[in-house]
């Protein structure tokens, strides 16, 4: 088993003994709290701030087999100026693409402060040999990515081979060096909230800088109860160790209203320190346009046609 990274507060594991004793998640209480927080209303000024924050925390993403350099270049232009008619709309946090298109994004985003993220490690299945996963992540960083979104081996996790999942995260983290590592749990395949919590703790113990709900290829994805379960694990690790781990819901968040619900969840669970792109991202390919429409409505009092915004 790979040696655990040094984490503050003694959070290195005797992994196998600890994971079975993480405690059961009260599913009813979790879902009720998530539903209650989703009903919070916010005033107009706060809503504009929340929508702009959601944009600043967005990982603008294209992960399709038909992706081309031209499509990625256009996506990067949108990342820089999401609404060309309104200079007050902020840039997004990152653009996320497949490894072979990283150089295109790096070239287009140079000097903007927008990060280049790449999926790796056999995305989206995770069903690749470990050495290929490591090489995949390393090559993406060598191509210029400064953030790596890796997927865990759900087959190994669900069959109880926690050490294999843990070792792969440790090795990928070592391979990517200073690049930020987001670990995707693919919660829609984990089956239970207990598994979501267990996988969250495992990923953080292995050195994840962020934990992420989903690839966006499996439903259900970033539901509010799943997000709350992961945020509570982040909170518990922070209280125990002082370590700050980021969170990224991805998949199924398509409307501005949903994005605001997720921001409320973050604020009420881990606190306002996480309301920053350094510790919070939201991943979606269709969310940004709805946020832009809502912002325009808040500023002008009238909805704009979706045709006013590019489809990327």
Question: Care to give the gist of this entry?
Answer:
The chain contains twelve helices and eight strands.
Structural description of this entry:
- This protein is of the alpha/beta class and 312 residues long.
- The protein has one domain (26-301): TIM Barrel (Alpha-Beta Barrel), CATH 3.20.20.
- The chain has twelve helices and eight strands.
- It has helices at 15-18, 27-38, 44-56, 69-80, 102-109, 130-142, 154-158, 162-176, 193-205, 224-241, 256-269, 287-300, and strands at 58-61, 94-97, 115-120, 147-151, 180-184, 210-212, 246-248, 282-284.
- The chain has an eight-stranded parallel β-sheet.
- β3 (115-120), α6 (130-142) and β4 form a beta-alpha-beta unit.
- α2 crosses α10 (224-241).
- The longest helix has 18 residues, at 224-241.
- The chain is globular and about 55 Å long.
- The N and C termini lie far apart (43 Å).
- Mean pLDDT is 90; it is low at 1-17.
């Amino acid at each position: 088993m790979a040696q655990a990274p040094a984490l503050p507060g003694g959070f290195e594991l005797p992994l196998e003994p600890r994971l079975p004793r993480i405690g059961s998640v009260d599913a009813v209480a979790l879902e009720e709290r998530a539903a209650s927080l989703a009903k919070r209303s916010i005033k107009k000024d706060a809503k504009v701030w929340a929508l702009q924050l959601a944009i600043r925390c967005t990982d603008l993403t294209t992960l399709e087999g038909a992706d081309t350099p031209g499509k990625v270049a256009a996506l990067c232009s949108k990342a820089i100026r999401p609404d060309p008619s309104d200079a007050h709309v902020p840039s997004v946090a990152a653009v996320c693409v497949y490894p072979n298109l990283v150089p295109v994004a790096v070239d287009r985003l140079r000097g903007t402060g927008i990060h280049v993220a790449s999926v790796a490690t056999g995305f989206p299945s995770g069903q690749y040999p470990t050495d290929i996963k490591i090489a995949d992540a390393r090559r993406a960083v060598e191509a210029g990515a400064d953030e790596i979104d890796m997927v865990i081996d759900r087959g190994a996790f669900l069959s109880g081979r926690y050490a294999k999942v843990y070792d792969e995260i440790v090795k990928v983290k070592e391979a990517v060096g200073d690049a930020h590592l987001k670990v995707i749990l693919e919660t829609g395949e984990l089956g239970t909230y207990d598994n979501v919590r267990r996988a969250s703790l495992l990923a953080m113990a292995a050195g994840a800088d962020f934990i992420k709900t989903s690839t966006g290829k499996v439903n259900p994805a970033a539901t509010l109860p799943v997000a709350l379960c992961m945020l509570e694990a982040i909170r518990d690790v922070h209280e125990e160790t002082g370590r700050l781990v980021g969170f990224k819901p991805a998949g199924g968040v398509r409307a501005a209203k949903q994005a605001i619900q997720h921001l409320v969840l973050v604020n009420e669970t881990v606190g306002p320190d996480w309301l920053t792109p350094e510790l919070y991202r939201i991943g979606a390919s269709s969310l940004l346009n709805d946020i832009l429409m809502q912002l325009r409505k808040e500023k002008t009092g009238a909805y704009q046609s979706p045709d006013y915004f590019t489809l990327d």
